[in-house]
Amino acid sequence: MTGLNKRNLYYYIEEQLISPAVNPDNGYYIFSEEDVRNLFLIKQLRNMDFSIKDIRDILNYPKSINIYLQKQIEKLQKEQQLLEKQILQMSELNERLQLAPITRDFLAEKLEEVPIPAIVQSSTSQNETINEELILLHFWGSFLQDLTMTSYRKDLWNKVLSEVRESQDPSISLLKDFLFNLSAERLEEEFARHNHTIKRVADLTDETIDQYTENIKKLLVDALNDKKYLSYWKANYHNFLLPSTKLYDSEINNTIRELSPMFSVYYNNVHYCYGKLYDWLNSEEGVELKEQMYKILDGYMDIEAHHNGLLASFVSNYEYFHEW
Length: 324
Description:
The chain is mostly helical. The protein has three domains: 6-60, Multidrug-efflux Transporter Regulator, Chain: A, Domain 2, CATH 1.10.1660.10; 64-127; 131-323, no CATH class. Helices cover 72% and strands 1% of the residues. The chain has 15 helices and two strands. It has helices at residues 6-14, 33-47, 52-60, 65-96, 104-113, 132-144, 151-167, 170-180, 184-202, 209-224, 227-248, 252-259, 261-281, 287-297, 303-323; strands at 21-22, 29-30. It has a two-stranded antiparallel ribbon with strand order 1-2. Helix 8 (170-180) packs across helix 11 and helix 9 crosses helix 13 (261-281).
């Protein structure tokens, strides 16, 4: 059914990738439909040269698959480059040895003559090629779910990818490095946090949006007094939180709003709520809290440059951080 031999099956059971029930009468394993499905996934992932550790992470946190696939692609591309250089080296050596009397001394002499290509990563190597689509899907994928991708919408998505590539925004590279270094569990948490925030803001109505705006004032105060959260914010500010805010504040949003009605609602609600919060912080009533915020965050907040986006990031991340 799975095409796997007994040795492989027992190995995957031993590694706890699957946990089939055992028949108490004869000691045989009883494989459920879920076990068979997982074995199929394991077989395919092994065919892609994933390690047992990576497979375990993917099975436990399937939403992390895009990151793991991209990392594996880059790993295989590096190996491919090395193999191509080794083939070139051996081919040259083989030509030099044709019809020659082979001795150890002669072989050693020829090996010294064969130039060994230096394995140096160039600035255009696959390892440094930024996978824009992977990053965009992480941040905007929730808005594309259940969306019928007509030809027009596909054109809009390709336009977004083109805009990102042409911009050469360093934020994309920072975000990629950040996501690639997360564990599968942390990736799953990031997906959950992101989707949780999106749904809460997108679901706001005319009747609830003003109350939410008042609530985020209190959340801002609470966040500024939460030492654990402040440590999280500062630790991830430059390599993830600020770059992601810049991405959401970029011109790309105009195309995404046209592509996804849900994102258009989310975008409008964010700017309404946090625009009001920004105005309040610059009012006579709120300026004291603004000064306190700058003092506490000490260089890890610049609402003058990124007012709506950075305020939204600071408060919404705390909202999720606090609840979970």
